[in-house]
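Q: I have 209 residues here and want to know how they pack in 3D. Can you give me a structure?
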Amino acid sequence: MDALYFDLDGTLVAFERSFAEILADAAERADAELTPAEMERYGGALGAALESAEDPYATAARTAELAVDPAAFSDAMHEAEPAATAATPGAFEALDAVAGDHRLGVLTNGHGPMQRAKLDACGLSEYFEVVVASGEVGVGKPDPEIFAAAEERLPAESYTFVADELDRVVRAAVDAGWRGIYLGEEESDDVPRIELLSELPDRFEAYSE
């Protein structure tokens, strides 16, 4: 059976609020206030910690020297971020159509517990056998090691990756020996492109022939 992996953020799910609004919500949940400068420091620190720290949200709070307990702020972020996340248009339709004939997984750059919480919040978890997160592998896309880790987690005859970043992610999957399907508006001559996930079943069937 073939495996079909999906990127998470921007592909299966998307934020309904800005990152600044999510941070403000988390701060309120943690009984704190953040200045714009603190939010900027936190965003930079979080990006640097996502693939190396056991709890990047607490680590970023310490690195950014926020005036809040790091563990409490991490807990608040694990509530605020999933609450601001929704499934992208066509996600359920596409997954319903491909689930019966393929092994499904999520391959995502991010903190595993947070990414799984977003899937749960959107009602998508039940579709997937595995979630492979960069924070648990130690490297992220486009590193070929994370694609190898995904193959180990979900043995299959072939692999296809659906994602919304053409150069950095979809073409990296192709370079790793996978097929790639790009979700987005940028023109692509070398990999198939869809504009909505609802187009995936037909596009994938044609691509696989």
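Q: Anything worth noting?
A: The chain is about 45% helix and 15% strand. The chain has a mean pLDDT of 95.
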